[in-house]
Design a protein that fits this description.
mainly alpha; 9 helices; 0% strand
């Protein structure tokens, strides 16, 4: 009996761990299928792109501004007099474009966009607005989820691209004012090891972050129950899961894309 109980408990644990993956995959597939109905979601896309993307630019700029300054100081402290001063520009460019701009901006936007999507859809769920749409023959995925997912996926790279530029500019200004580097030295470091792949990698990675955050937020909102407390729990769950997923996807892209590129 003890062995059977242990096996049953293990099976229940595995099921609890695997079941969310399956339901999330089915939800994602349903959203992809709903994208074919462009006439339904297209009118809502521009408003969602402005709300989820353009309105998020100040957050990305604020984060990148101080990130560039800190990176320039850390780069100078780390290399010291062991390497030429222009390596400060190299380290700032590489870390901003490859890692910090996409990840830090993604984590910040996960808190804003993930919670926003989950709270909006969760409120509509508990107030039975979604039920009313379904009664009238409207498909919630096409009207509510697809515009948010597409807007988030497309606008995340825009915000991250601006953050990359601001991070480099703030690192340059910090190098001039705090490290006594010259502009030619900093620009030399940026150009020496710069590759277009660096920017492409960061933007593609950020697009995957945007898709994950919006899908997780939408799923959390549509499954909300329990009134105002349920909306709060759904928003919190969306932010936590989105942050974890961003880190998972960050590791995934590094293993799949960067590793393969190094092996060529």
């Amino acid at each position: 009996m003890a062995v059977n109980d242990a096996i049953s408990a293990l099976g229940a644990l595995v099921r609890r761990l695997v079941e969310p993956v399956g339901t999330g995959a089915r939800f994602t597939l349903s959203v992809v299928r709903a994208m074919r109905d462009t006439r339904t979601w297209m009118p809502e896309f521009s408003a969602q792109a402005r709300s989820l993307g353009i309105d998020s630019l100040p957050i990305g700029i604020f984060i990148a501004l101080f990130t560039g300054i800190v990176l320039a100081l850390l780069a100078s402290y780390s290399v010291g007099d062991l390497v030429p001063p222009y390596f400060v520009g190299t380290l700032v460019q590489k870390t901003v474009t490859l890692e910090l701009a996409p990840v830090l901006t993604g984590l910040a936007l996960a808190g804003r966009l993930g919670a926003n999507i989950a709270a909006e859809l969760g409120t509509m769920r508990v107030t039975e607005q979604i039920d009313a749409l379904e009664t009238l023959g409207y498909e919630p995925l096409r009207h509510l989820v697809v515009p948010r997912v597409l807007a988030s996926t497309l606008m995340f790279p825009v915000v991250v691209g601006v953050a990359m530029l601001v991070g480099l500019l703030s690192g340059w200004m910090a190098s001039l004012s705090l490290l006594d580097l010259t502009t030619p030295q900093f620009l030399k470091g940026v150009r020496v090891f710069f590759q277009a792949f660096d920017v492409r990698y960061g933007l593609v990675k950020s697009a995957s972050f945007g898709a994950a955050v919006s899908l997780i937020g939408a799923r959390a909102g549509l499954t909300t129950a329990g009134g105002a407390q349920g909306v709060g729990r759904g928003a919190t769950r969306a932010v936590v899961i989105s942050a974890v997923m961003i880190l998972v996807l960050d590791a995934f892209w590094a293993l799949v894309w960067l590793t393969n590129r190094q092996l060529r």
